[in-house]
Amino acid sequence: MAICKILFFLLALCVWCGKCEVFYKRVGDEVSMKCGVDSNSDIDWKFNGESIFSITGKSGTRRKGSSHIAEKASTPGDILKVPRLETRDSGNYFCKQSGKHHTVRVVSAFVKPGPVLLQSSNAELHCDITGDPNTEVQWQRPPNGEEYKEKKQVIHLKSVTSEEAGQWTCLVEKKLKLIVTLTVVGLQTTAVNASKGDNIELPCSLPQSVSQRVVGGRWKADHLPKVSFPNLTNTAGEGLHWHGNDLSKVNFTTGQLSTNFDVTLKKVQSSDDGTFVCTVEFDGGVSLSVETTLRVVDKPSGVKGSNNRKGKPPAVMESLTKEVYGLKLWIWIAVGASSVALIVLIVVIGVVQRRNKRMKKRVRTLRSMRQPLTDKDYCQCDRAEKEVEFGEQARPLPVPRQHRNPRTRTAGPNHTN
């Protein structure tokens, strides 16, 4: 205790003298600290007394120290940069040459036992400043950012309700703001109407997975003392599941459960009309109960009743909504079908391309097999020479006039009939 007081006194003195800076950073942030010396000077950086780097100014030689900070830090010039801050990086950073001290406080905000809580359960909101648990913080509560009365780093919420759900803000020294979101959920159900002889689902579910682990639960109907309902059981080998042997009146899924705790009541009668209670138990002694009302009416004449009021087989739907490796089964089926379709498309494209290549190769082969033309196959065109001959030929002599029209021509002396 005395040592803590001394360190706090030295820190306060350091800040007052102006040679110490205090940085409040989130987990994962980066911090930059300046030594304040010439770039050619030797620089020695230390973290809580352990060497980080020793840099020779003239040669630029850098030697790593024993501190874990050296594995991720960098030193451009006289600046020390520490990325991806963790809670263990909180502490005092010292530059020997300038005598400057820098204090880094890594702040983390979270909810215990988790951000999704059950109604009436307890919760802790943390805004932890590593290395400085006594510094006060300002909490702002939902929905309007109203200031919370307590200014501690850890506040306790008792029997949470929907009023506490929403964003909680933690302000550290008015410099850093961290937000945690709190979700409060409860069991959900609806009233059910059925006709005589129908198989009917009694609904009971959580809207989403919660931080608390389900350890047990049951269905109960005081007006049906002889009806055997299954019990919720959570074991290491089978996980959360229904356990029951009598399926004569109540049917249930035999697979692993997550947030759906429905059961099916077979061939309901007027005697089944009444209130049914679903109870789910969680770690820490928290349990939630919800009531649903069943109303059974006479089946209309001439109308055949369905096996299930929701119009779908409960076993099939339960199987499709079952979680496998964190996702619903129907999502895996959709991904598988899409993958098969993609593979078929790729195969078809490959076959078409291969066929086109074969056709192109065949065309090239046929072209290469054609016989080349010989000299005698070419056309000898002498059109130009003939045009030259015709152009140089002399014009014919004109015909004598007496020879132009034999009918008008006069008979000569040698003319004989």
Automatic annotation (TrEMBL):
Superkingdom, natural source: Eukaryota
Domain Ig-like: residue ranges = 83-181, 182-295
Signal sequence annotation: 1-20
**What InterPro entries has UniProt attached to this entry?**
Ig-like_dom, Ig-like_dom_sf, Ig-like_fold, Ig_sub, Ig_sub2, Ig_V-set
Instruction: List the coiled-coil residues.
Output: none
Q: Output the PROSITE patterns linked to this UniProt entry.
A: IG_LIKE
Disordered as annotated region, ranges: 390-417
User: Which residue ranges traverse the bilayer?
Assistant: 329-352
Which UniProt keywords are present, listed alphabetically?
Membrane, Signal, Transmembrane, Transmembrane helix
Q: What is this protein called?
A: Ig-like domain-containing protein
Q: Which organism is it from?
A: Cyprinus carpio (Common carp)
